Amino acid sequence: MVDWSELFGFSVNPVEIFVRGTVIYWFIFFLFRFLLRRDIGAIAITDVMLLVLIADAASNGMSGGYDSITDGCILVATLAGWNYVLDWISFHFPGLRRLIQPPPLAVIRNGKMQRKAMRQELITVEELQSKLREQGIENLDEIKIACLEEDGEISVLRHENQEAQPVPGSSAGKKVT
To answer: Does 32 map to a domain?
Structure first.
């Protein structure tokens, strides 16, 4: 027989669930915002593993051992609510957007790789060249600016009508391979 009160009743104080969910949400947010950045447009196996392990590790801290569906719904609503609040703040307060979302990072300026920025984000020359080839870029001199965006993608603005030079590491006059 189904015990409806056990299934839908509170087994943990709803305020405790909210506080636990809030603390874990903000901890994970700051971990990802300030320590990790997406790997230039791709999620590697290690990234997926990290997300799964963090979710598993955080679940016990967030749940506090809840047993009912209602407790789980409050926790999910808390996490979704904080996600919405961050999106809303980013939209309505551009000044705070930089705290919530990483700004674009220039990895190429006027055809020159920005090695310091690439080192900062652990982007190799080969990874960058691969992303440029995906966008049909044959030569670095075609690029006015290329930025690592907040979602991990590389965006490129090209110079107009300029003669191009080969990408370092490729043969002169040949496409990047």
So the answer is: yes
Asked if 167 and 113 touch (Cβ cutoff 8 Å), the reply is no
d(CA 170, CA 176): 6
Nearest-angstrom CA–CA distance, 138 and 156: 12
Q: How confident is the model at residue 105 (pLDDT cuts 50, 70, 90)?
A: very high
Which structural domain, as residue segments, surrounds residue 132? Answer: 105-158
The answer to whether residue 172 sits within a structural domain is no
What is the separation, in whole angstroms, between the first and last Cα of the chain? 66
Distance of CA 147 to the CA centre of its chain: 15
Residue pLDDT, tens place only, 142-158 = 999 999 988 788 999 99
What is this structure's pTM? 0.58
Residue 96 CA neighbour count, 13 Å, CB half = 9
Tell me, yes or no, whether 15 and 85 share the same domain: yes
**What confidence score (pLDDT) does residue 93 get?**
93
Q: Is residue 163 helix, strand or coil?
A: coil
- The CATH number for 145's domain is 3.30.240.20
Residues 45, 74, single domain; the answer is: yes
